[in-house]
Amino acid sequence: MIFDLIRNGFSTQTIINLLVRVFTVFCVLPIHEFAHAFVADRLGDDTPRLKGRLSLNPLDHLDLFGVIMIFLCGFGYAKPVPVNPRNFKNRKAGMAITALAGPVSNFIMAFFFAFIANLTFVAYIKNPDTTLLSVSYMFFYYAASINVCLALFNLLPIMPLDGSRLLNLILPEKYYFQIMKYEKYILIGLFFFMVSGIFSRPFSSLCNIVLAGIIRITSLPLGGLGAYLA
Asked: Residue 60 gets which letter from DSSP?
């Protein structure tokens, strides 16, 4: 992102990408982490509340290096919400539901922003000379896209991603902990595959497929973008 800004200057596309990353840092990530904290609290674990994580304040959730990664590389992370599984009636189910809350919050936001993108797109078609509508459409489209990508990425069954908690629900503990022994190496491998493009290309394709489906669904009442994706 920063490198694009240096190379291309303040083009409309670059500015929108920058705004979406700012939006991700101060809205998307805090809501994702708050969802974890809220569900854990509702299931009986007060650890997130005691640690000050039952909050929508971005400063309570952001990790400095994770934020820098978002602006430099386009992907990053927030501070994980601390959870004590002993406080759940069913430890495995409690951890899995708490983990799933984050990606679910992203899918909800993706549907919301896709709907707004459709609204602004319809308005833009009727008023094609209005720059504000064009920029608004692009912003909300990318806001929906970033939520889809964040949800799908977090569903990967790799520690410390949310998907690893779902894997724990399915696998017997002895196999789960055997896999978790190699957590560090799995993360290094994932990072290598993302940087090299081996993983990022198929992952981007999956994100685009899911996003296109959401755009079509949210365009049904409007006849918006979905008609152009058919």
From this structure: G
Mean pLDDT value across residues 12-18: 79
Rounded to whole angstroms, how far apart are CA atoms 138 and 82? 35
Residue with token string 């720059």: 131
Instruction: Report how far Cα 13 is from the mean position of its chain's Cα atoms.
Output: 21
Q: What is the reported pTM?
A: 0.85
pLDDT at residue 72 above 70? yes
Question: What tokens does 133 get?
Answer: 């509508």
Q: CA-CA distance, 185 to 155, in Å (whole number)?
A: 18
Active site residue 33: yes
Give which of 154, 146, 158 is closest to 204, Cα–Cα.
146
Among 24, 33, 165, 215, which one carries the catalytic annotation? 33
Number of Cβ within 10 Å of residue 7's Cβ equals 8
Please give the DSSP secondary-structure letter assigned to residue 79: P
86-104 tens-digit pLDDT: 999 998 889 999 999 999 9
Which sign does the torsion angle of CA 230, 121, 212, 203 carry? positive
